[in-house]
Amino acid sequence: MKRLKKLFTSVAAICLSVLLVLTGCGDRSADRDGDQVTIRFSWWTNPTRTKMTQEAVKLFEEKHPDIKVVMEYSSWDSYWQKLATQTAGGGAPDVMQMDGSQLMTYISKGQLMDLSTVGVDSSDLSEETVQLGMVDGKLYGLATSINSQMFIYNPEIFEKAGVTFPEENYSWEELAELCVKIREKTGVYGMANEMEQTGLLSYFARTKGEELYSGNKIGLSKETLTEWFQYWLDLQEKGGVPTAEENAAYNHNDPSASPFIKEKTAINWLFLGTDPNYEESLGKPIGRALLPEWGNENKPYPLHGAMFWSMSSKTKHPEAAAKLINFLENDPEVAKIFKTDRGIPANQKNMEIVSETAEDETIQKQIDFMEKVKKVASPEKLAPQGSSEIADILKNLSQQVTFKEITPSEAAEAFIQQGNEALSQG
Question: CB of 104 within 8 A of CB of 383?
């Protein structure tokens, strides 16, 4: 009897094992429904981008009925907090929108797939654009689009001040003089105090022949950093930018809080792609201009990857994930949906489609501006692991300088020390 029970138990166990194999072992029901594969796709967003991306994903699912896409999206800050938690726990989305400031962090932890090994198509991107997402010959991020830093300005205020924006190469000193003159003639500040912006600091450094980062260390000299802090402090004292109290009263990374749209400043620094939002909020046409010293022999203008498509190295469905990336990157119908929301399309054929079909003249102005940048730009290097901390360091020190709690020289020393500590910790 015992032998019969033992035999029955063994046979039952074998049958159960076979059943589990045939059904995918029971733990894959979450990512496979019959013949349909389910993948997760995440991105940071705003209401407009959410609607556009949902439309693109719906179109993808119609063309690929064997793939279901679960969409996850949130604001910038919460996006990175959530993604860090997901990847640390082994539950990263299959496809994710990635930023150049974050790529190295995820690459160094082995959390991203080499896209060149899974059939991702980059044939319609320029070699320089593809390089933006490459490290050691491996493609970890496919640039969705390219953009650049720029100034927008209010032509009405410029006319009242009797000034024009320089069309030829101009200096940082000439920009400061322009801001002061606008204030004197109109009572409007020339621009906001952008001392805390790491992107603009990086550009400033490139005009001096330096880089913000050198490997996993701060690449700026104390002299250049001191000059940076002093430049904005001098502008503040001359009235070209707001007072320390006014400067601290709003979030510089929140377009809705910008003094530019309230016509309290005449010039605004930003990245191409967000300019239509400012123009709409302002309610009148804006001008677009290159940054100071754009024509220097150092070629300071960086060709910037606006965003990237990346794939989790842990994905169970690399083929399906690659199909989604290829669709979002290369499909002409998607290009017509996205337009320039994520920047100027990196796919050159799609960029031409967007240009030809654009009903809004703003889109053509963006494309024309980016063509100017391409002529004077050089590829931007990826920020090192730990660079996400640099923005907070610069913001804190900048606030202390504007309130004259520390000198520009002391801020420069502190930035190098604190920055190197953050980068060393990754």
Answer: yes
Same domain? 237 vs 95: no
Distance between CA 72 and CA 76 in Å, rounded?
Answer: 13
Q: Are residues 87 and 194 in the same domain?
A: no
Six-digit token string for 164: 């024009």
149 strand-pairing partners: 271
Helix (H, G, I), strand (E, B) or coil at 150: strand
SS3 219: coil
Q: Residue 357 is which amino acid?
A: T
The total of other beta-carbon atoms located within 10 Å of residue 222's CB is: 13
Backbone torsion region of residue 265, taken as left when φ is above 0, otherwise alpha when ψ lies between -120 and 50, otherwise beta: beta
Q: Is 145 in a helix, a strand, or coil?
A: strand
Least confident of 5-14, 59-68, 217-226: 5-14
Could you tell me if 342 and 306 are in contact, meaning their C-beta atoms sit under 8 angstroms apart?
yes
Closest CA to 342 of 53, 131, 83, 81: 53
Residue entry with tokens 């860090």: 84
User: How many structural domains does the chain have?
Assistant: 2
Q: Is residue 72 part of a domain?
A: yes
How many Cβ atoms from other residues are within 10 Å of residue 89's Cβ? Answer: 8
Which residue range is the domain that position 174 belongs to? 149-300+386-425
Which of 193, 141, 192, 152 is closest to 307 using CA atoms?
141
Confidence of residue 255 (pLDDT cuts 50, 70, 90): confident
94 and 212 together in one domain: no
Tokens of 1: 């009897």
Nearest to 301 by CA among 245, 376, 232: 376
